[in-house]
Amino acid sequence: MAEVVLKDVMKNYGSLYAVNNVSFTVEHGEFVALVGPSGCGKTTTLNLVAGLIPMSGGDISIGNRIVNDLDPKDRDIAMVFQNYALYPNKSVFKNLAFPLQMRKLPKAEIEAKVMQAAKILDITHLLERRPRELSGGQQQRVALGRALVRDPAVFLMDEPLSNLDAKLRVAMRSEIKRFHHNLNATVIYVTHDQLEAVTMADKMAVMHGGVLQQYDSPANVFANPVNTFVASFVGSPAMSLIPLDVVGKGTDVALKSPEEGWELPLSAQNARKATASSQGTVVLGARHSTLKLHKSPVAGSVPGKVYTVEPTGDVTFAQVFVSGAVVNVSLEPTAPIAPDEEVFVEFDQQRLHLFDGQTTNALKAA
Amino acid sequence: MATISETAIRPVVRKPIDWWRWAGRFFLTFLLLFTVLPMAWMVLTSVKSQFAAMQYPPQWWPTEPTLNNYFKLLDPRNRIGQEFLRYFWNSFYVSLLTTILGVVVAVPAAYAFSRFRFPGRNFLFFAVLVRNMFPAVVFLMPLFLLMRWMGLVNTHGSLILTYLTFGLPLSIWLLKGFYDNIPIQLEQAARIDGATRFQAFLFIVMPLSTPGIIATSIFSFIGAWNEYVYAYTFLSRDHQMTLPVGIQRFFTEFATDWPGLMAATFMMSVPVVVLFLVLQKYFVRALTEGAVKH
C-alpha cells in the first residue's frame, strides 16, 4: 500500500492535450474516483499511472518512488480492465496464477495465494473453467482476483462495472467498496458514471477536456461545485442552470431574465456574490430538491412552464422551462401537475449556486 | 388436462416444389462431380497396370488392381524410386523452409502493423499487396535476372526467396486480422502482471494467434509445394528438381507411364490433403475471423 502523487502530468498527441497539467495526491488507503464524460482524459490518466503509455511531462510517484520511466511490471500496481482482459486460453486458476508466475514465486506459494484470493471472492468452484464459460459477474470477480493475488501497492480500475447489467452493477459496486474497506487498499477508479463515483469514492477527481476541474470528497463536490461543468455533471438529475443578468447595486441586487424580463431579488450574501461577476451576467444553479413549485406567485419565485412530468415512484420529477432553460424540480408523487401548466418556481436563497456568466466559475462573496 | 398433442391438430400443408432450390442442388452436384471425377480417375488409373490403362474402351473399374506403381515409386533401390524420393524430399525441404521463414517474418510484421503506429505504416501495408496484383509470370524474367546476379540460380535458395515474396503478403494480411482481434488490454494486463512487452507477446498473444499462424503456414506450404513455373525456370539440374517439375520431366523422357504418373501425382497430393483435412478448422477460422463480432 502506498500513496500516489501526480504532479503536472501531461499527455499530448500532437496539439491535442489528452491530459493537461493534472496534479493530485491519493493518500494511502484512499479510494479515488476519476470521473468525467467520455474523452475527458480519465482513462488516459489511469494508463499513465499504470505506465502503459509514455508521459509527455510531469511526475508520477507511487509510494515515494518516481515511476516516470518504469515499466508497468515494475510499478507494483494491479489493474482491472473494463473488458476484464482475462486470458481466454487459460483457466481461471492459471489466470490468477499468471502474475505470481511472472514473479517466479514457488509453486506451493502460488497455489496457496490463488486459493486464498479465490476464497475471498467466492470463486473456488470456478477455478478449472475458462473465462468464456463464466457469467459477466463471475468474470468480474476473476479480474478482481487477478488484481488482488499479488497484494500490489495500488489498484487501478478502469470502468470495471460498465459491462455488467444494471442490477449486477449495483451489487458489485458494494462488493468493490467492501473489498476496499477490508483490504485498506489504495484504489484509483475510473468511471463515467458520477453515481458510482459519489457512492464509492473517498475523493473524486472530476475531469473535463483533459483538465482536472475539482478534486474533493463527493460531499464537497456535490455541495460546492467549482464551476458549471462540475455542477451539471455531479448529481442526478443534474443541477439546473439558468443564465441571468445582474441588475441593481449594493445590497439591493436582483437577477433579471434577459428573455422574460422578470426579476429575482437576492439575499445579501448572494447579492455580494452576484456583484462579483465579471461581465454582469451569472448562471443561477439549483438542485431539484431545493426548489418548490407553486400554482400562484409567492415572494422569491419566478414564472415557468411545465414541459414534462416524470413519475419514478418515490418522487416525481417535473421539467420546467424558466427563462429558456430547463429546470428540474422534484415533487411529491401525488402533486397535481400537468404539462404546459403555468407554475411559479421558488428558490431557496441559502442553497442556490451562482456562477460567473463569463468564466463559469463559482462566484465568491466579495 | 388436454390429451391431444399439438402435432395432431397441426394442419397438413403441401409445400410447393421450390425450383430454385432444386436448381441449386443440381448445380452443386455437377460441381462436385466436376472436381471429384478427375481425382477419382487419377486414383483408379494409379492402381492399373500399364496395359490396362491404355485399353480402349477404358476399364472403368480396374479388373486387376495392383499397388506395383506405388512400390516402384517408394523403392529406393531402383532408379525411379530414387528420383521420386529425391524430388519429394526437395519439394518438402523447399516448402518447409519457405513456410518456416514465412512465419518467422510474417508474425512480427503483422504484429507491428496491428499494434504500432509508425510513419509510412499505411503505405507499407498496401505496398506488400502490390505484388499480388500482378500475375506471377510477370516477375519470372526480372526475378531470374536478379537471382543470376546474386548467384542463386540452380539453388533451392532462389525458390525459397521467390516463394516468400508470393506467400508473405497474404500471410501478413491474414495475421494482422488476427492480431487486430486480440484486445490490446490482454497485453496491457500481462505487462501489469509482470511481463515484459516481449513476454506478453510470447505468453498471451502467440497462443491466441495459433490458428492464424497455422492457416498462414498451410497457405505458404501449399503455395510452395504446388509451384511449377519458377521451379522449372530457376533449376536445371536433375537432382535439384521439385516434385511438380520432376514428375513431368521424369515420365515424359521415354513413353508416358500413365499409371506411374498418376501414382506419383497422388503421392504428391497426399501431404497437402492431409494438412488441409487435419487443420481445416483453423483455416476456415482464419479466413472468417473478424467478419462478425463474437
UniProtKB/TrEMBL annotation, chain A:
Its GO biological process terms?
carbohydrate transport
Q: Which Gene3D superfamilies match?
A: 2.40.50.100, Nucleic acid-binding proteins, P-loop containing nucleotide triphosphate hydrolases
Domain named ABC transporter: which ranges? 4-234
What membrane topology term does the record carry?
A: Peripheral membrane protein
Q: Which domain of life is it from?
A: Bacteria
**Pfam families assigned:** ABC_tran (PF00005), TOBE_2 (PF08402)
Q: Which GO terms describe its cellular component?
A: ATP-binding cassette (ABC) transporter complex, substrate-binding subunit-containing
Q: Which UniProt keywords apply?
A: ATP-binding, Cell membrane, Membrane, Nucleotide-binding, Translocase, Transport
Membrane-crossing residues?
Answer: none
Which SMART domains does the protein's record reference? AAA
A single MF term (Gene Ontology): ATP binding
Location(s), subcellular: Cell inner membrane
Q: Which InterPro entries match?
A: AAA+_ATPase (IPR003593), ABC_transporter-like_ATP-bd (IPR003439), ABC_transporter-like_CS (IPR017871), ABC_transpr_MalK-like (IPR015855), ABC_transpr_MalK/UgpC-like (IPR047641), Mo/tungstate-bd_C_term_dom (IPR008995), NA-bd_OB-fold (IPR012340), P-loop_NTPase (IPR027417)
What the record says about family reads: Belongs to the ABC transporter superfamily.
Q: What is this protein called?
A: Sugar ABC transporter ATP-binding protein
Q: Which organism is it from?
A: Devosia geojensis
UniProtKB/TrEMBL annotation, chain B:
Biological-process GO terms, alphabetical: transmembrane transport
Which Pfam families does the UniProt entry name for this protein?
BPD_transp_1
For the keyword Cytoplasm, the answer is no
List UniProt keywords, sorted A-Z.
Cell membrane, Membrane, Sugar transport, Transmembrane, Transmembrane helix, Transport
Which GO cellular component terms are attached?
plasma membrane
Tell me where it resides.
Cell membrane
Cross-referenced InterPro entries, in alphabetical order?
BP-dep_ABC_trans_perm, MetI-like, MetI-like_sf
Q: How does it sit in the membrane?
A: Multi-pass membrane protein
What does this protein do, in the record's words? Part of the ABC transporter complex MalEFGK involved in maltose/maltodextrin import. Probably responsible for the translocation of the substrate across the membrane.
Q: Which family does it belong to?
A: Belongs to the binding-protein-dependent transport system permease family. MalFG subfamily.
Which PANTHER family does its entry note?
MALTOSE TRANSPORT SYSTEM PERMEASE-RELATED, MALTOSE_MALTODEXTRIN TRANSPORT SYSTEM PERMEASE PROTEIN MALG
Q: What protein name does the entry list?
A: Maltose/maltodextrin transport system permease protein MalG
UniProt source species: Devosia geojensis
Q: What is the lineage of its organism?
A: Bacteria, Pseudomonadati, Pseudomonadota, Alphaproteobacteria, Hyphomicrobiales
